[in-house]
């Protein structure tokens, strides 16, 4: 088990001892007895998530572009210096292995973040290419997210954050500490990820929290992050899909097209792993589509009333697959869901047969109460569920 | 009548949150709706104003809970800016330096009560469950058009029957508790459960909110239940802050109303309802304009609705008589502070309680004494206070590092002593509040950058609510359900055809509920209007 560069501080803040492991790193699920305050801080003020455990690779060398273009589905040549791309990558059958962010730090220098560690696989694919792949997972990363994140950060740096576009990075100092700031996040809100050398982690934390007091800054854990990412319609590995390398059977695998990630698959670029299969699939049409569902609260309330119970709303995200029906026919499954306190809606992410995925389509979703299987009405909606303009907008100058 | 003038289906008098809710529902039904608000902003008593530069006060009301999920969904309020964050926990400093607190986490609360009384900690979960059960039992009544048992009619009989079987389904024990809570004083009711005085005080204070009664006055137990009736995200009786203050709730409802096509006009005070042949046909504005519409709906309090907006002589004299006896008796004031930093309560061990409500009600005797002062027409020398610092979770309200504190104060009698002028009285009332608060948070005086003091008289002057009662009339059993505002006129109608009422003076009463507005529309539509 490993501790992140910020652990001396996260440990102080975490009064509920609610920790779990992420890639063998210790990470707080929540800090205070109620993760809802952490969730609201993301949406109302600002909050910090220690995302240091995320696997990170520094890829550089003359063939770095070529190497990455072979692997990921995005077109790396379109990624300019200082830009970040979201991208999946697939196996030869066009099934998703993982996804992550690819940042071009310099002309032939990139950083790739991933859900799972992929060092050996990356190296296997770099044979005969002039490229160096370094595991830089030890770097500290703080995700500072929320509507006041920019205002807070501006008090600590001279960098022109107002003009830092969504999915772009810059190098600067924050509170005198050299960092890289990337305008990215997993919350669907205005936010930044701040990259720092591990030995400066605690100093960075202290600088941010000292300035953050005026902005009601608090740390948030995995439970609040889960809620934010569902509202943002962002999929989670091992929950909304499985890596094709981690499962055995075909039906457990999925393609980026089925997951609604087709926009990040550039079929017409030069060869990349899985290209042929994805071209075929694209021509044929994917057999699943990923959409949002909104549960009908009246129908849900009626189900609970049938048991003499008041309506129950999940205040923590759930992530067990749940069957979805149209009439008697099962048409797919919902993979994660929750009550959204911001939207006042019960939302879920679902993968359904394409003919049932038009916005407004009515489906049924299984609800289990003490082993009694019932079905509540739900409506198909577009994702993201929550998408405030501030997520992408520039600052006031 | 100017034939070119636009005609409306419905004209709403008063852009308070209930008027706006009625407007939104009527517009949603395709009616051409006009809302006329006398002030420059909508919201009535649910407004946010920047009285002191950089600081936003949620001027009159301050917390939200009673707005039902149904209204939130039907009007799609989150899309229009509704953003309610939970207000978790409470902190009550005591006069001996001790304190009692409650937390979002029930185990933490029980541990805290245990510090005062092991017995009460054991009983507390049972009490909580009983209150939730009673709230669940009463909640359907809130959205029920109140049938008049003396003259029910067919529909009323059906409702009464449903109501009867609903009560029967509670079971004997809960029915007895329900009867008790409907009739007892908050203190007596709570004393049947708890032995810890300060614990009783923290609950009993809920029972006096907005009433001119003390914790030992019969009827206050019901008020306690009334404020348990709320919910937030399916969690019963939880309270919350609207981002940007309660004005944000009004703005969200107004935005929803506009999205359905309603027109909202501010700075448009209404002088009178225009009545022809016993039928309301329009309104005359104070500036002399006249606007015509098929139905006129008043979101104002019963006194304004019946006795100011129409000529009393057009109404049955028994109705006028009943309205004149309707009890407003505004009893609560508000002090809003712009603070240079967070106050320091020496008794507060866990600084997370800065985000909770800080209640100044150290004992039952303290509350009853505060009432004693008011009984004889003064303000309380050491008043009950419910303080929140919403800027601890919402940075939109104050500049970085600064805070706003919203203090609900009781009692501030509407009829404060006649000697001295209003300004002087307001000043002394404000000083009593700050001095008392300083007993528990000594640095408060050094932090105050600006102070706004509001008495019931000020509420009447600015918002227009008679005697400044936050609930448009006291929430007492004789003024509730089929008797709200008065027997015979509880169904949102008036003796004047096409003239309706939709304010908090109608069933189910005060608080930011929107329910009177919604139910009034149901009745208006039932009449074919």
List key phrases describing it.
heterodimer, A: 397 residues, alpha+beta, Gyrase A, domain 2, Alpha-Beta Plaits, Elongation Factor Tu (Ef-tu), domain 3, 3 domains, 6-stranded mixed beta sheet, 6-stranded antiparallel barrel, 9 helices, B: 529 residues, alpha/beta, FAD/NAD(P)-binding domain, 7-stranded mixed beta sheet, globular
Q: What is the succession of H and E elements of chain A?
A: HEEHEEHEEEHEEHEEEHEHHEHEEEEE
Quote the distance from N terminus to C terminus of chain A. 45 Å
- How big a fraction of the residues of chain A is strand? 25-35%
Shape of chain A: globular
Topology:
The complex is a heterodimer of chains A (397) and B (529).
Chain A: H1 7-13, E1 18-22, E2 25-30, H2 35-44, E3 47-50, E4 56-60, H3 64-71, E5 84-90, E6 96-106, E7 109-114, H4 119-124, E8 132-135, E9 140-145, H5 149-154, E10 169-174, E11 177-182, E12 191-196, H6 201-212, E13 218-219, H7 222-231, H8 275-284, E14 289-295, H9 297-305, E15 322-326, E16 329-340, E17 345-352, E18 362-369, E19 372-381
Parallel strand pairs in A: 3-13
Antiparallel strand pairs in A: 1-2, 3-9, 4-7, 4-8, 5-6, 6-7, 9-12, 10-11, 11-12, 14-17, 14-19, 15-16, 15-18, 16-17, 18-19
Chain B: E1 7-13, H1 17-28, E2 33-36, E3 48-52, E4 55-58, H2 69-74, E5 84-87, E6 90-93, E7 99-102, H3 106-116, H4 118-142, H5 153-169, H6 172-183, H7 186-191, H8 197-208, H9 220-226, E8 231-232, E9 235-236, E10 239-242, H10 247-259, E11 263-265, E12 270-276, E13 279-285, E14 290-298, H11 302-308, H12 317-325, E15 332-339, E16 357-360, H13 364-375, E17 379-388, E18 403-412, H14 422-440, H15 444-447, E19 448-454, H16 456-462, E20 499-501, H17 515-526
Walk me through what this model shows.
The complex is a heterodimer of chains A (397) and B (529). By secondary structure, chain A is an alpha+beta fold. Chain A has 3 domains: 129 residues, Gyrase A, domain 2 (2-Layer Sandwich), CATH 3.30.1360; 107 residues, Alpha-Beta Plaits (2-Layer Sandwich); 94 residues, Elongation Factor Tu (Ef-tu), domain 3. Chain A is built from 9 helices and 19 strands. In chain A, the strands form 4 sheets. In chain A, strands 10-11-12-9-3-13 form a 6-stranded mixed beta sheet. In chain A, strands 14-17-16-15-18-19 form a 6-stranded antiparallel barrel. The longest helix of chain A is centred in the middle third of the chain and has 12 residues. In chain A, 48% of the residues are buried. With 529 residues, chain B is α/β, with parallel strands linked by helices. Chain B has a domain of 205 residues: FAD/NAD(P)-binding domain (3-Layer(bba) Sandwich). In chain B, strands 1, 2, 11, 12, 13, 14 and 20 form a 7-stranded mixed beta sheet that branches. Chain B is globular, with a radius of gyration of 23 Å. Chains A and B meet through α2 of A and α2, β5 and β9 of B.
